[in-house]
Amino acid sequence: MDPVSLLVLGLELQRFPASDSSAASLGDSLEVIEAGGLSLAPYQGPALQPVIGWRSRKLMLSLAPGLAGGSSVATSSDGRQARVSTLQWREQARAWYLAGPVVLGLDVAVSGGSATTGGTTVATAPLGLELGPTAGVRVPLGHQLELAGRARWPVWLAGDQLSQGLSGALMLSWQPSSKIVAQPGS
């Protein structure tokens, strides 16, 4: 089997509620930002993220990176202004067992972030760790495309905060076929 045919590329939608924001905001008061002591909320990842990985008939190993940034202008009461930029990241690794159309597996993620103004860090997000069992169903959409719906039960630990709950994910993936990448006569 051609190694390229084991490659999987995809796009996944997680975090369905519209109230979920992709990047944190620290507000518009420059005095409050300059006073310090602020922290960013733990980053739980993007709503839409790329997926890249390797897949055999029974196993899929993949990475799903996420990055979100934002920028706003904070103003002080005396009219001074400063741009505040936030950058938050998340890296998720997955190991799934594929039993026919059924997906069973585990997602593990690490996240963090910071906010800066004028090159100075004014806030950070606590390092977040996620461990989430997952189960779902895969539906072929053709020879190379597949749709996978999953239920997830992520447990998040960020700083001294622990949270958990049911969530979902919907992924569209593409896996090259060895018939397509093979050279004629090989």
Q: Write the element-wise H/E pattern from the N-terminal end onward.
A: EHEEEEEEEEEEH
* DSSP E strands, number: 11
User: Uncertain regions: pLDDT < 50 for 5+ in a row?
Assistant: 178-186
Question: Whole-Å distance between the termini?
Answer: 12 Å
Give the strand order of the largest sheet, numbering strands 1, 2, ... along the chain.
1-3-4-5-6-7-8-11
The dominant shape is: elongated
Whole-number radius of gyration? 20 Å
- Largest sheet features: 8 strands, antiparallel, barrel
Alpha-beta content class: mainly beta
What's the overall average pLDDT, rounded? 83
What proportion of the residues form beta strands (DSSP E)? over 45%
Into which percent range does the helicity of residues fall? Answer: under 10%
**Tally of helical segments:** 2
Secondary-structure map with pairings?
Layout lengths: L6 E8 L15 H6 L2 E2 L8 E8 L3 E17 L5 E19 L2 E16 L2 E21 L4 E8 L2 E4 L2 E4 L2 E8 L3 H4 L5
Parallel strand pairs: 2-7
Antiparallel strand pairs: 1-3, 1-11, 3-4, 4-5, 5-6, 6-7, 7-8, 7-9, 8-11, 9-10
Question: How would you characterize the overall build of this protein?
Answer:
It is a single chain. The chain starts with 6 loop residues before the first strand and ends in a 5-residue tail after the last helix. It is 5% helix and 62% strand. The chain has an 8-stranded antiparallel barrel. By secondary structure, it is mainly beta. The chain is elongated, with a radius of gyration of 20 Å. It contains 2 helices and 11 strands. β9 and β10 (161-164) form a beta hairpin.
